[in-house]
Design goal:
With 201 residues, the protein is of the alpha/beta class. The protein contains 5 helices and 7 strands; from the N terminus they run βαβαβαββββαα. A hairpin with an 8-residue loop joins strand 4 and strand 5.
Length: 201
């Protein structure tokens, strides 16, 4: 039996990643746009706050279990920016090229050792809008910012995020490798452990 989960996002990259990871386990992840869900106002100050806001909003408008992913990039040289503003770093929400170009401009001339960064992913799962105990998990992925774009795969900041363990950018990794080691994969592994142990579905 397939269980439908509403993902509080319409990001095609995220939808594809979640389905690739969850479909073998019997879960069908649908974007909230299929249910005409009006997007939540993301006025939280942390990834955790925004993830819960988005999950509750999707539950309330669909009556289905909802999963929200709030993720972003933290760059040490920029004191943690772009952080929760990662998707709209350059102004226009979801303009990956502009975001990457602005990041590279801000780090122009910064030595390699000072370009440390990490991706964060917080997942919030709610059974219903009044769920008093949402499941919240957090994964992080260490790396550094390159000096130019590299690779054709992935999305977001993947082309500028160098993964030391793999010797290339996140956008150069095959999907199966990225989906095994990324911040989202780490968070999802934790989430599945919780869901399985609590039989939340």
């Amino acid at each position: 039996m397939t269980t439908t989960i509403v993902l509080a996002s319409n990001n095609k990259g995220k939808i594809a990643e979640f389905n690739q990871l969850l479909s073998p386990l019997g879960y069908d992840v649908k974007p909230q746009g299929e249910y005409q869900v009006e997007e939540a106002v993301e006025d939280g100050l942390t990834f955790i706050e925004n993830a819960i806001l988005k999950a509750r909003n999707a539950c309330a408008q669909t009556g289905l279990p909802a999963l929200a992913d709030d993720s972003g990039l933290e760059v040490d040289f920029l004191n943690g920016a772009p952080g929760i503003y990662s998707a709209r770093f350059a102004g226009e929400h979801g303009n990956n090229l502009a975001n990457n170009q602005l990041l590279l401009e801000k780090l122009a001339g910064v030595p390699t050792l000072e370009r440390s960064a990490r991706f964060h992913c917080v997942l919030a799962y709610m059974r219903h809008k009044d769920d008093p105990t949402p499941i919240v998990v957090h994964g992080s992925w260490e790396g550094r910012i390159l000096e130019d774009l590299e690779g054709e795969a992935g999305f977001g900041y993947d082309p500028v995020f160098f993964v030391p363990a793999c010797g290339c950018s996140a956008a150069s990794l095959p999907k199966e490798i990225k989906n095994a080691i990324s911040h989202r994969a780490q968070a999802l592994t934790q989430l599945l452990t919780h869901l399985t142990s609590k039989a939340s579905f």
